[in-house]
Structures are given as C-alpha cells and as structure tokens.
Amino acid sequence: MSSENTNSENSGRGAASRAAARAAASQKSASRGVGTGTPEKYQSRIGIDYSIEYPESFAQAAADAGAVPLLSIRELGVAYTTRSGEPSAAIRDVDLDVHAGSMTAVVGESGSGKSTTAGAVIGLLAANAQVTSGEIRLSAHGDAPQLDLRALSPREWQKVRGARIGYIPQDPGTSLNPLKTVGANVAESLRLHTGLGSAQRRARVLELLDRVGIDRPQMRLEQYPHELSGGMRQRALIAAAISLDPQLLIADEPTSALDVTVQKRILDLLDELRREAGTGILFITHDLAVAAERADELVVVRDGVVEEQGPARRLLGRPESAYTRRLLADAPSMQTLVGAVGPVRAAEASPAPASPNEHDPGRSEADRTDALSLAQESSPSPGPSGSAPPLVEVRGLTQVFARVPREEDTADAADAATTGALAGTAVHNTAVHDTAVHDAAVHDAADPRTATAPSSPDATAIIGIEDVDFTVPEGTTLGLVGESGSGKSTIGRALAGFSTPQSGSIRVGHYEAESLSKRELRDFRRTVQLVHQNPASALDPAHSVGASIAEPLRNFRMGSKADRADRVAQVMERVALDPGLASRRPRELSGGQLQRIAIARALVIEPRLVVFDEAVSALDVTVQSQILDLIQRLQEELGLTYVFISHDLAVVRQVAHTVTVLSRGRQVETGPVEQVFAHPEDPYTQRLLAAIPRPLDTQVLDLQALSI
Amino acid sequence: MSPTFRYILSRLGQAVLVLFLAFTLAALLLMILPGDGVLARFANPALGLSADQVADIRDSYGADAPWFIQYWQSLVGFLQGDFGYSVNSGAAVSTLIAAALPSTAVLALCGFVAAIVLAVIVTVLASYGKPPWLANVIDSAPALFVSVPVFWLGIVIIQVLSFQLGWVNVVDPGAVEALILPTLTLAIPLSAPLAQVLIRAVADVRTESFVHVSRAKGASEGWLLVNAVIRNATLPALTIAGLLFGELVAGAVVTETVFGRNGLGSLTAQAVANRDNPVLLAIVVIATIGFVLVNLIVDLLYPLIDPRLRHRGRVGKSARKHLATSTAAPAGTSGAVGASSSAHGSVAPRTSTTQGPGTQSAEESSS
Fold first, then answer.
1. From residue A240, how far is each of A163, A189, A205, A415, A649 by CA, in Å?
2. DSSP for B256-293, written as a single string
3. Which of B327, B333, B344 to mutate to test the interface with A (most CBs of A within 10 A)?
4. 3-class secondary structure, B308
5. A539 to chain B nearest CA, in Å?
6. Which one of B220, B308, B321 has the shortest CB-CB distance to A158?
7. In chain A, is it the N or the C terminus that has fewer CB atoms within a 10 Å radius of its CB?
8. Angle formed by the axes of helices A683-690 and A260-277, to 10°?
9. Nearest CA to CA, how far is B224 from chain A (Å)?
10. Which residues lie in Basic and acidic residues bias regions (chain A) (predicted)?
11. CA-based nearest distance B41→chain A, Å
12. CB B216 to CB A167 under 8 A?
C-alpha cells in the first residue's frame, strides 16, 4: 500500500513535474515536489534528462561526434500535376537532416506538405506527383553504400524500401492486411528481402514481436489483425518496419489514430528503438505537442514551405515565426498544462483582448489563477454552482450492448505491463511509467484469474455504458472524456433522444428523455441538438448548405420561406460565416466552414442543449481553436448548455466547466474541471492526464511569447 | 455446438426455406394463369376430342381440382421425388430432366469458369496494363459486353468464328467442339459484371493503407497483386459470382436455343411454349436448388477467405471494434458508414433469403 502511495505521488510529479516546477505557487504541486525530493532531476526512461538543465540533444551529440546525417534533404521540391496539366508545387526548398538515433519531426496542418515530404523520402509519391528539384541522400550504413534517393530506379527502390528505410503508417486499423495473420504481416519484409525459410522467419517474427512489447507473441503470431487492439496493431507495424534493422524509420502520424494513453506507450517504444538501435526517425505529425515532447529537431511546414526549423527546445522557447507562435497558441495541450490550475476557458472567453496583466511574465501562477476564477465568476454564464435546478440530469443511465470477458482488456493492461517490463530493461526507468502500469493493473483487474468470473460486474468489460450519473446546470458545459470504446458517444446519443436507455433516467428541461411519446420526442428534438465529428458526412452533399441549415425549420414547419431565408442568414452571421455562402455545396467549403454550418444548423431552431460529439477532433489545430472560441462565444450570447464529448482532455479543459471521465462504459470521476484536472482522484484519470504529451520547455513558454 | 457449425446449420435452414418459397410462388403463379397445358394440347379442334373426353383427361391430370389440392399434391409429389408427368409428351418429368440436365450442367460450368478466367484477364489488363490508354480501353470493355444481348452475340460469334474464319465447326461438330462457341457466348456477358466489380475492387484494394505499407516494405506491384490484392478483391467479386448464377440459367435458355443444343434451356423454352406446367415447375425447383446451393457455397466461402467473418456467433473483438468505430462516427451517418465498411476490404455478408426469391421470379419472368 505504501508503495502505491509513493507511486501515485510520483505519478503526480510525473504528470505535472515540469509544469509543477514552474507552478510552484500551486500548493498541491509544491507539496508533491517536496514529497519526491529533487523535482528538477527528473529522468525519463529513455534516458533523456527532462530537467531544466536540459542536456545536449541526440542531434547535437551526433553532430559533435562528427557524424554525417543519416538522411539529408536539400532544397527538395515536389510538384503535383493537376488535371489541367499545370504543375503545382506541393513543397518547395525543404531542407532537413535526420541524424542517427535522433528524431526530426515535420509538423504542419493538413495540406502543408508534410506527408509529401515523407513520400518523397521513401519514393512513394502519388502517381501525379514528382520530385522536381533538390536532393535526398541516405548515408552509408555498414556495407550499404551512400545513396542518392532521387536517382534510384523502381527496382533499386524495392531493395531500399523496407530494408534500409522502414515505414510506420498512420492508421493501424487499416494498415495490416486483414486477411493475413499478424505473423504473416510482420514477415512480409523478411519474405521480400531475405532468403529465410519459414521456420527462420517465424523465429525472427517472434523475436520482433517480443521486441516491440507484444505479450504472448506465440499466440499473437497466429491471430488476425482484427483480434488485436489498436495499440497492439501499431506495435506489430513497428515490428514489421524494424524487421531488417533499417537505418531510417519514417513514422507518418503513427499515433494520430490512437488513444492518448496508447499514444504515450507507442512514442516510448519509438524513443527506445532509436536509442538502442541508433535508428534515425523522420516523424510526421500535425500534433505540435507530440513533436515538441519527443523530437530533437522540429521542422514546421506550412503550404509546402518550411516556416521555421531548429532544435525542438529552441523552437518552443523562442519561436521566431508568427505561424509557429500561432500553432503553439492554438494547440490546446500546449496551454492547458495540468499544473496550471484554473480554467483557461474564462481567459479564452473574455471578449476583450487579454488584459495587460496577462502579458506580465513576472506574474505568479497563483495570481493568475485567482484572476481567472474571478473572471469566471463574473462572466455572464453562471458557474456550475448555480442554485437553479440543472438543465440536464442523468441518473443511473445504463445501455449495455454486450458484456465481454475481461480477457481482451487485460491484454491492454498487459500491453502496459509489457512496456513497463521493457522499460525495466531499458537504460532508465521512471516513476511515472511504473505508476501508469500499476494503475493499469489496479484498474483493469490485472489478475487474469478473476477475469473469467462473469458474475462480478468488474469481471466483465462493457460495451455501452452502465450507471452513469451527472447533471449539467443551465448555461454551462459538461465535458465527457474517455478513450475510444468508453461509451461517451452512447451517452451523447441517449441525451439527444436517439436511443432509449435500458434503465436510468435522463431529464432535459422538463422532458424525461427516456420515456417520450412520439409527439414529445419531436418537441424534445427542438430542445436538444447534436453536432457530429465530421460535418462533411453530416451534411447532404446534394443540398446547398443554406438548405441544410433550413432543413430543421422545414421539418418543424417554422416560418414562411422568406422567414426561413432570413433565419438562415442570421444564424450564419452568428457563426461568423458570410450568408452569401448559403448557396454553396458542402464540397466547396473547408472543414472549418462546414463545422460552422453544422453548428448553425443545430442552432437555427434555438435549442437549449447542444451535444458536441467530437465536434472539433477532425479539424486542424488553428481551425479547432477558432471553432472552440465560437462555441464559447455562442454559449455566452445565447445562454446555451453544452455537453462536449471528446477524447482530447486538453480541449475539454479549455471549454468545460464540469467534467465526467468515462472508462469502458463506467463513470470513474466527475467534478468541476479545475478540480478533476488538478487533483484527479481516480487512477484512470491520473493515467489519462499523465499521457498528455508535455513538451519539455512549455514552462518557459509564456503568454507573452505566444502573443501574435 | 461450435459457432461455425451453428452458422452452417442456420444457413442450410434458410436455404430450405428459400426453396420452399420459390416452389410455392412458382406453383401458385402457374395455377393462377388462365388456361393450362391440358387445354392447350387436348382442346385443339384438330384432335377431334369431345368435350367429355377432354373433361376425362382433365380429371386424370387433376387439372380442375381446387388450387390448394393441386398445390398440396405437387408439393407431396416433389418431396417424394415425383415430379409428375409432362402434359405435352406424357413422359415422366424426371426422365426429361435427367436427359437434359447433364448437357446444361456442362455448358453452365464451362461458361462459368470461362467467365471467371475472362474477368480476371480483363481485370489484370485494365488495372496493370500498359500503356495507360490501353488499360483505359479495356477498362470500359465490360460496360460494352454487359449490354450485348446473348442471342445477338451468339449469332455474331457463329458468323465470325465459324463461317468467316472457319476456326470452329458448327455443322456436325465433335463433343468438345460443340461446346466452344456456346461457352463463349455464355461467358462473355457473364464475365462483364464480374470484371466490373473486380476492377473496382482491385482499384480500391490498391489504395488501401495496408497495400501502401507493403509497398513501403519494398514489394513490387506484381508481388502485391498476388500476395495482397487478389484475396482482398475476391470478396466483392464472390458476391457477384453467386448472383450471376441466375443469369447463367437464363443465358443457357437462349444459348441452347441459338446453338440448337438439347438441354434444360431448350426444355424450358418448349415447356413455356406448350404451357407444360409440371415441367416448368420442376425446372424452377431445379434452378432454385442450383441458385441456393451456389449462394450457400459463397456464404460458406466468405469466412474461409476473410477471418473477420468467422465466429460471428459471439460478440467478439471485431464486433467491439466495429462498435467503437461506429459510435465514434457521427450517429446520423451510421447508415452510410455501415455501407462504406468496404473501406476495410470486406463486403457485408448478405443473406440469400432476400436474393433468392427476387432473382428467381425475375428469372421466371424472363423464361
């Protein structure tokens, strides 16, 4: 028990350590720092010292050793031939190096050309794309000669891909051949490049699966991809990529499709690989926080041009380009560090530009916190402690689709445990990781012997939700947080009246959502609106967006045709869109504009409750930030109540007043957002928070530096 | 009972149900039609039979019994393997069928295999052919073939291959030689939809992430075709192949007529002309059995090809994953999402219950 306490102490420190060092004024953080002795000497399990006195990066170390970069790109240009035959440049003048054992991250929003860069390096550009200028060189490696990658013939490329350059794809869900066993998938490179017999291949695959931390490799070998969890699949893909000890790994958004705790473990694995094997990693990502946390060198690209590049630490501490500053400012996880107590939301929501005080770097965290809570109290939207009865009241909500034996869940726990074991063999180990594993063990009922007893509710995993309680006061936002499969969308659907729960009650206003007659349901739908993740698929491509917005009005027979047009124009203005866009089709608008349209459609019939189901998850970070601002402004202007469903803790922290954390269909924690984020009580919440990428120097980052 | 076994059992049950429904529908429709074969044959004034004699004959065929008696009698007869007697020739229907079936079965099998071979050739050429313009031309060929009527194609093939080029003898040909042209006639229109689906499936699979990953491992296009693309593209084509069986039967009727072959097709044509209901009913049942069997095989092949479709009895990980993704997707579009699950290279498993009768009745109307 005492060790558990120590662990959770360490977890707290690990979770908030760097922030804690800065937010020393925060009482709790300070006490945690004291509890563990030397907070500055925090060591990561991959051996990077994350302390304030940050040591030389791998890249610098390599450069000092006089090593040539493993991959060297100079003035690279790639152009796409458009339908009209005009070449259009996708990237221009990109320079970057990847050194042995180090990670260079190319960061950019969609369409920035980051994936094109990766494609050029591995010689797999789209059919209509071509490298037009520059050079790409791969250094000599053992017996293998130095290569000019631009000059390779298709046949030569086939010898280089897989053997000298490994590729880790974005979506583990679709990147393994579903009809082949995991073993056969991993063995592909061996079949292609070596003359190994099937027994030798099998032995090598077992070794690889074990290497990447897949438990029970003998069993996994025979399983099919769909029988593995997302994290496990990504491990298998990494095993395939490293099967021939390539000198360079290209990781193309390797964790974007994964839950945050899984993401952390995969990133740890990559760190470990490059440390142990000296593999260089070219890391492609849209997530500045991930890049900043893990990479040695950052290359920020925008519209095919490098905006800024340099050592990660320098770039984060003193971003030179306005675009980088904006990216930093817009990335939710960059600003909403766990250590920074107090709702960022209130600051964000304040209509006027931030007060001059905000820019005072000398201001202590505690002062700011006070100011922020004051700001929140004085803000027009009543806080969660309002005395009026809450608009939404959910009691004992249960909707279980299936109960499944715990086996597959212990697999996830084992996933964590194995990483822990691996970490043990690695050079360094950290308290935070141990804690994560321990928490996983506690939470997932790690003892497999208890796993098969179906009588105890904890022995089975739930698909769906069970016994969820929460209330949402009028005019506030509840954040529903959880990883995939946690049941958060099920709650959203039940709230919006799309499904009748098996038991429990949902009250919205004066409606009892679980027992509505057909007529009541119609009225109820005017009270609650749902906004989905993907506006492009939620809007009818054949209709103009104006018609889509007017659709609810037509359905409820509200107003004449002219009235409706007026309403559509009004609501479009409200979401900061030019009403002139009403005649456009969805495909003519950008993702951000479409999400504004979707929000406009939800608002046009003046609901009281809006359920956002991952409404900003598919958007680029700058667009995401704009939509979040919009959502908050609308809440203040219209007194709306929100339920905001997201897997992204940082986003939830930014918009929500209260938060409910879900894990595998069960509610593990609920409370005011500041409290849950600052002092998470449930081990799962702690684990979730600990997994948020934390760039090294964010402490140094200040609102001042971020002012654009 | 293992889930696989239970699955096969439920599939078999469905097959029997389809068979029963097809029989019932065909029997009732044939009875509802005004007039019957007995009238058509014996009331002919040229035979000079009196009204009483005709009534006696009608009585001996049971032609005037209420429909449910007739239906019950033929149902019991079919269950006992007794198909009754042809109104037209008086021969036992089972004898007629036994004589006609082998020739048609051989033709159908050859046509089917030839169609698959043709479709694969067209697919490979359209997907990997060089130069690109040639691939494009071949890509559009199936659309042309699918719209060509079988009888016209048969005539053109005879005209060109036999009379002009003299490659194949149509007058008094050998057993194998006699099969070549009908097979070709049957296969070309059949291969067209198959090729269309295959080309599309191959194009889809080639853009799949896992193919890209294999390419990044150093695989050549040829290696990918053999090791990754073919199996994944087979699934949708398999569905079409099962459905095409109905077309095969319809095609056999025309082909056998055009080439003057004796078989189930020509038997059908005669039976329709003579309103020979017992023969028609037997043919319908036999065609349905064939259709149901082929689709049963297709359904049982799915899980063999795609491991994700195995063990569908329990809520396994795949279901859980599916649930996770579908709940993550916007609720309002879940229908579309379900339909686009082919993004994972799979085809929603279909039930032959919904297809069987539909195709069957279409086939009936065509015959």
1. 11, 7, 8, 18, 32
2. HHHHT--SHHHHHHHHHHHT-HHHHHHHHHHHHHHHHH
3. B327
4. helix
5. 9
6. B220
7. N
8. 50
9. 11
10. 357-370
11. 59
12. yes
**B318–chain A nearest CA distance, Å:** 6
Min distance A240 CA to chain B CA atoms (Å) = 8
DSSP A64-115: HTTPPPSEEEEEEEEEEEPTTS-EEEEEEEEEEEE-TT-EEEEE--TTSSHH
What residue has token string 């695989």? Answer: B219
Domains with residue ranges and CATH for chain A: 175-245 (no CATH), 392-406+445-691 (3.40.50.300)
Contacting A with CB below 8 Å, chain B residues are 208-220, 223, 227-228, 231-232, 305-308, 315-321, 323-325, 327-333, 336-337, 343-346
> In 3D, which of A287, A296, A236, A216 has the Cα closest to residue A257?
A287
Rounded to 5°, angle at Cα A586 from A580 and A587: 115
Task: Give the residue-averaged pLDDT of A588-613.
Answer: 89
Per-residue pLDDT tens over the stretch A451-476: 333 334 455 677 788 889 999 999 99
Closest residue, chain B, to A250 (C-alpha)? B216
Cβ neighbours, 10 Å, residue B176: 8
Handedness of CA A47, A50, A55, A58 (dihedral sign): positive
Mention every residue, 6+ apart, whose C-beta is less than 8 A from residue B347: B235, B236, B238, B239, B302
> What pairs with residue A251 in β-bridges?
A168, A283
- What is the predicted pLDDT for the residue at A405? 61
The mean predicted confidence, pLDDT, of chain B is: 76
Which regions of A161-207 does DSSP assign to beta strands (E)?
165-168
pLDDT of residue A284: 93
3-state secondary structure of A352: coil
| Most B CBs within 10 Å, among A149, A164, A179, to test the B interface | A179
Rounded to a whole number of angstroms, the distance from the CA of B348 to the nearest CA of chain A is 15
Peptide bond into A39 cis (omega under 30): no
Helix (H, G, I), strand (E, B) or coil at A416: helix
Write the CATH number of the domain with boundaries B93-327+341-366.
1.10.3720.10
Cβ–Cβ below 8 Å for A162 and B216 = yes
pLDDT range class, residue B215, cuts 50, 70, 90: very high
In chain B, residues with a C-beta closer than 8 Å to the C-beta of A409 are: none
The predicted model gives B228-244 an average pLDDT of 88
Cβ contact A179–B345 (<8 Å): yes
DSSP state of A499: S
Q: Return the number of CB contacts < 8 Å for A and B.
A: 143
By CA distance, what is A171's nearest residue in B?
Answer: B209
Q: Which of A123-127, A380-384, B250-254 has the lowest mean pLDDT?
A: A380-384
DSSP string across A645-697: EES-HHHHHHH-SEEEEEETTEEEEEEEHHHHHHS--SHHHHHHHHTS---TT
Of A162, A170, A185, the CB nearest to B218: A162
Question: Structural domain boundaries of chain B?
Answer: 93-327+341-366
Nearest neighbour of B324 by CB, restricted to A176, A224, A484 = A484
Q: How high does pLDDT run on average in chain A?
A: 75
The dihedral region occupied by A617, where left means phi > 0, alpha psi between -120 and 50, and beta the remainder, is alpha
In sequence order, what DSSP letters do the residues of B101-146 get, joined into one string? HHHHHHHHHHHHHHHHHHHHHHHHHHHH-SSHHHHHHHHHHHHHHH
| Nearest CB neighbour to A498, from listed B217, B328, B331 | B331
Sign of CA dihedral B17, B22, B25, B27: negative
**Which residue from B292, B280, B270 is spatially nearest to B359, judged by alpha carbons?**
B292
pLDDT of residue B169: 74
Tokens of B140: 């559009």
DSSP state of B92: B
Q: How many CA atoms are closer than 13 Å to the CA of A197, on its beta-carbon side?
A: 1
Instruction: Tell me the ipTM for this assembly.
Output: 0.71
Cα A291 to Cα A296: distance, rounded to the nearest angstrom: 9
